[in-house]
Structures are given as C-alpha cells and as structure tokens.
Amino acid sequence: MKFIIDLDGTLLNGDQSNLDSVEFMKYLNDRNFDYLVMTNSIKSPSLIQEKLKNVGIDIGIDKVMNPINAINCYLKIRGLSNVFVVGSQMEIEQIDGVINNENPEIVILLDFEKTNVNYNKLQEVFSLICKGIPVITASGSNYYLKNGQKVLDTGSFACLLETAGEMTIPVFGKPSYEYFMSGLRLLNASSREVIVIGDDWKTDIKGALEVGCKPALIKSGKYVEGDELNVPQAMCLESFMDVFKVDLRS
Ligand SMILES: [Mg+2]
Fold this sequence. Notes:
Bound molecules: magnesium ion
Strand content: 15-25%
Number of domains: 2
CATH topology of the largest domain: Rossmann fold
Helix content: 25-40%
Largest sheet: 6 strands, parallel
CATH superfamily of the largest domain: HAD superfamily/HAD-like
Radius of gyration: 18 Å
Oligomer: single chain
Low-confidence stretches: none
CATH class of the largest domain: Alpha Beta
Distance between the termini: 14 Å
Strand order of the largest sheet: 5-4-1-12-13-14
Shape: globular
Order of helices and strands: EEEHEHEHEHEEHEEEHHEHEE
Number of strands: 14
C-alpha cells in the first residue's frame, strides 16, 4: 500500500501539525511505506520540507510533489525543453527547461500576481496560442484568499486565454487527472495500490476517484459535516491511524 497525502488542512493545520499527523508520518517512515505529499502550492519543495520539519515531520525532498514537479515530469516525458514561463524568477528557476520566449515549444502559466502581468504579456501568450503552441497551467483556481480577501489567481487568466484561444488549458494541480497520474508515475504505482488522504472532497477525493485510487476523507481542514455524502466511495477518517483499521480490500 502506498499513499498520496495532502498538505494544508491534512498534515498541517496552518503552521501546526494536524490531528495525529506526526505519529502517522513517523509510522510510514519507520516502516518504509512509499508516499508523496501532494500540494497545489507552488512554494519550492525545500520550503515545504522545512515547514513540515518545524512541526516534527521529517520527509525527503523527493517526497514533496507540487505542480512544478508535475510540470517537470510532463516536460521530461514529452521531451520538451524550450519554454515560455509566466511566473516569478524563483518559480522560473524551478522549471527544468530553457527559457526561449521567441520559439518556445510550450507555454507554462505559474503566477500572474507577483510578476504583475499586463496586457502586452497576455497578448504575447495569446500570439503563441494562435501559432499553435500548447499551454499548461499550475493552477485552475480562479481566486485565492489573501488576508481574508478574494484575489485573482492564475486560473482566471487561464480561463481568459482559453476563451480567446478557443482551447482548453490542462491544469497541473488537484483535482486534475494529469496531476494525479504524475503522482502515480513518481510513486511507480498502479492506482489500486494507492490511498489518497485529503480534507477537500472536491480536489483530493474527486481527483483520487478519477484515477482509480482509494480515497480517504479526513475530518479536518476544509472538511464540513456532510461532505462525505458527496463522495460515498471514500472512507472517512477521524484520525490518520484509522486508515489502517479500515478493510483495505473493500
Ligand atoms: Mg487540503
């Protein structure tokens, strides 16, 4: 049995550990279980590793999967190296590709906020779409919460470009099929071997079901009473260690 485990609201509750996550991760490490910590955050894996270390969870950097890892996996499989990236310098440096704004093989949308993208930049991407250059995005979210206020996220700009280009932009974040498939490739596992643990039925659980993994909805983070009714196939966990009490053959 292998695991894909969500980060925020699952292993972590803000900057603190959540439920028995420390005990559970120690259990997995001590018994050499294979797992990935899968997040939609595009913070660098080393920052995520450090955040977990601060609460007493030790994981190798290779166990952190974020949209940038998945994008790198995709570039490698497709043999793509010339890229056009919308994102901050720190994010661009994480992409395993050569920046080639004139003749890219693919456009990668990461962050529009920190780079303060303007009309000309959007037009530049649109021109590439018109030339038939494929586009992928690290996020399908239209907004996120910043100090309690809704602010535009990359997904909104991806929607704009999809409308203008009359095409669909694949999302490399949960719940996308491609994202979970990248996770299975990294784990070298078939979907039936993998349990996905997460607090969000719309992203973690729906995504898990789509690829055929066994989903486990943990009652913390984004979970609200009754969420399990939306995903009756998922096992419901009050604590992480409960996952071992459920009959996994069912
Ligand atoms: Mg979560």
